[in-house]
Amino acid sequence: MSAAAPGLFDGPTPHRVARVAVDVPLAHLDRFFDYEVPEALSEAAVPGCRVKVPFSGRTREGWLVSFGQAEPDMKLLKLKSVVSSEPVLDAQLVELFRSVADHYAGVFTDVLRLAVPRRHSSTEKAPQREWPAPTSHGPASVLPLFPGGDTFLDALVRGSGPRAFWQVPCVVDQPGDLTGGVLEAVDATLQGGSGAIVIVPTIRELNAMLPRFHAAFGTGAVAVLNGELGDSARYRNWLALRRGQARVLLATRSGVLAPMENLGLVVVVDDGNDSHAEPRAPYPHTRGMAVLRCLQTGCALLLAAHGRSTDAAALVERGWLKEMALNPGQTRAVTPPVRLSGDSDHRGDPMAARLRLPSVAFEFLRTALTQGPVLVQVPRAGRSAGLSCQRCREAARCTKCRGPLRSHHQGRVECAWCGFEPPRWECEFCHHQQLRAPIVGAVRTAEELGRAFPGVVAINSSAAMLRTDVPDEAAIVVSTPGAEPPAPTGYAGVLLLDTELMLSRADLRVAEESVRRWCNAMALSRGPRDGGRVLAVGPSEHPALQALVRGDVGGFITSELAERTAAGLPPAVKAVRVGGDADAVREFLDNDPFEHVDILGPNEFIHGQTSETVALLRVPLEEGRELVRRVKYAAAIRSARKEGGRLYIQVDPEVLD
Questions:
Q1: What is the C-alpha to C-alpha distance for residues 33 and 21, in angstroms, rounded to an integer?
Q2: DSSP per-residue letters across 348-362
Q3: Does the N-terminal or the C-terminal CB of the chain have fewer CB atoms within 10 Å?
Q4: Could you tell me the pTM of the whole model?
């Protein structure tokens, strides 16, 4: 920042030099700036408060991070005003935001805007209500059922910062009570005198969990943060956390960065859910931010899910997370039995030809409906399908980068990652040379089932029309993944339709994401003693479906991770996705030599009427920090040179298609 004429300034008092994070989203200006604090603002200006400062000829908002010492003869611009003396930041939050920004090659103030809600002046000035101390949840009954569960709870009480991944069985009651296990972990943390943050993927899960949190710890003792709260309520809860009044937080994504006095535990529920990925720059992921916060504070970390992400599996494999999971035999004993119905089971089946539903699925529905409601999960519509081998149904992969092959135009096959168009394709498993695309037909599922079972209530639940509950009687509930409403006593049966369609999407994570979605649906089913059952219609030989039958989701994800490692794909490597306008991407890549970095692309991809150029940079994990540093340096050069065009940078991208 250039200094103005000396005559315009008085010499600053050394202890009144303020270091300010100015709200400027430019990469080459991602640092703190020093300002002099005028005598008139000396009392109002406190560390962490909001201020206004002159910057580049304009008045901009900023946050006073700390005070520093002035160098001899230093000439500084002065703070213009103090917006509020409320200290919204402290040294620990500043360090956390800085580490998140650096990890994701972003800008400090971008992270700050994600974490700190907008100021609501009347709420800030009003007296806070009394926040009661959380009540005791009672003795633990869920986590002790798992190997290492008692040890984990004991470590939480002692405050020794244990880290674990909890594989929750896919059943509606114990030991599949995910919320119950999370409540036990939070209660143990509170017994140790620390606070806890619980992060769920969407508001839907938050609303489902909140009544049990209120029942366990008291209605007034649980703070909530989510995007649907009004400015006043959001800021009120955030202030309660910042002032040390609230000790339990239940929140969605950005809540992982919320202040918490004496933080003892961070819980991330269903870390593989794509809602945990922030769609705004610098595109951080809840799991990554939770890991960074754990490293910074030494707090405990618990990832809890019915499925398992390869990222969580990688942390378990490296020994950074301890695994709390039943073995496959124990899992099969407590979860509903899974039956598969493959193509060979209904070839020539007139029922399958007429209803897109094989006779075995029709009989499954008819039997299960005599005992209660049945959940029918169909794939989410509107996703581009990938290609697979016509003979063995194995996903078709690019021979250059191992990316998924897809076909957007008749007769044209291309890689979803690098754009390579193979002139000839051969399956690496069975050497067949014919490709196949899935058959789409899920749109009419609800109508077809309604006609097939007259007199039975048919309920549709999807993103456009979410249902929160269903009757505890015979009913067919057709739902897309993530929109499944719970049944009062669990579903008598779960029917997974069009599994082949879900497995054929052109996505690196297609198999693990499919298993995650199926597991979340199965988790709403009654246990085997209560007659719960699951039927999956699709390629019965596929390893993902076989894993459901064996009750060995962990083993399947471990094999997925091994394949990624062999192919040099995330999370076995550090990857950075750079996309946008073609010239912007190429200019960015020219800003650094990127020596010893494997660069795939840049390649142009056409999406309808628009196009996007994408490059993927990857290095071994141990070189990941250096790669991100160089990416951030290249972004700073782009910003300083005012290079035009649209460009985005994603570190550890969840999707590569």
A1: 7
A2: T-HHHHHHS--HHHH
A3: N
A4: 0.88
